[in-house]
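step: validate -> pass
step: tokenize input -> pass
step: predict -> running
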Amino acid sequence: MERSSLVERALREAAPHEIFDVIRSVIERRHGALAVDLLLADYAMTELQPIGVLPHTRASVPVSDSAPGRAFGAQEPHYVHDRSASTVSAYLPVSVRGDRLGILSVELPAAEGEGPDRQVLAELQHCADALAHEVVVAERDTDLFLQARRAERLTLAAEMQWQLLPGRSCSRPEYSLGGQLEPAYAIFGDSFDWSASADDLYVTVSNGMGEGIDAALLTNLCVNALRNARRAGLSLSDQAYLADQAVYGQHRGDQYLSTLLLRFHLPTGEVEAIDAGSPRMWRVRKGVVEPVELEAQMPLGMFEDTDYIAQRFRVEPGDRLLFISDGVYDALSPAGEKYSNRALAASINSTRLLPAPQVPRVMLQELLGHRGSGPAADDSLVMCLDWHGAPARTADASAGQEQV
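step: predict -> pass
step: emit ->
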């Protein structure tokens, strides 16, 4: 416990751009590590990019078919023994509250056939966890980690959109969710947002209108208007109304935004939903893939003084919800064929065993196989939410409540 506290204190006291240097020094000193690397997932979630002195960094590692990628996908430590070098390489997830940032890679000396000591592995994972928290905080004050994540240059619109997101995945006992945008380095209008409290999870998914900077500015206006209303404690209907007014007041109906707004009541699974010309929603329940039909209402900002009415439904433990923008449905193959609902349902079904944070990337990769390698005509968004339900209360907690 004392050693863990010393690690955390050293990270807090380090300059933001030096936190990885600090953790590397600690691991080398305590465990005799031969090499320590931090690999951050790139914006497309296909490469793990090593932290180094920019612009001269080492080659990236693919997420697919690599030992670090295995640890990243499973979100569990993984190690590989090199008998010829008498070393063992440990790969540890660098994640915070379900948001998968990357991998901490540590090469240690090892006797033949031996893996890392269990206590050493636990200490290294603690270092990875502490580093994850500090990376999130440090990104407010340094560009080092944001620069290292990019495998190529972002467009200005994409820079604006990625900065707008709350993260790319998140988990709590009640749910796990993840989202992805494509083309990752040139996205312009699509976006998602979420926020959770003790009892509620708010999720919004937006299908942006227009291209480039105009689309990014429109989405930024809408998302921040929704956040402003949500943080004021307003109902879901009032959040939609005030965002609608903000967009209409700026563009007078010439530009508008299709948005799906949801509020999940965490203790019960009750859901309020407003389909404001939204991205479409699919549900997987007990192996059955089906679209969730909601009453369509006007997109945000299309008309003045639009009233929005929330619909209600319930999610059950084991349900998976997927939110998919028009860029997926309208994607054309080189022969001009649209991506059909049948192909989409097959993609949803083929990813049913993957955890929610992995599903969007895999589905968008399958879409790329349909569309081909040419430039995308529209950006695409996939978001996946797995509903686990409220955790059962322990007998002790129940007894305590009865006594009260």
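step: describe -> Residues 394-404 have pLDDT under 50 and may be disordered.
step: cleanup -> pass
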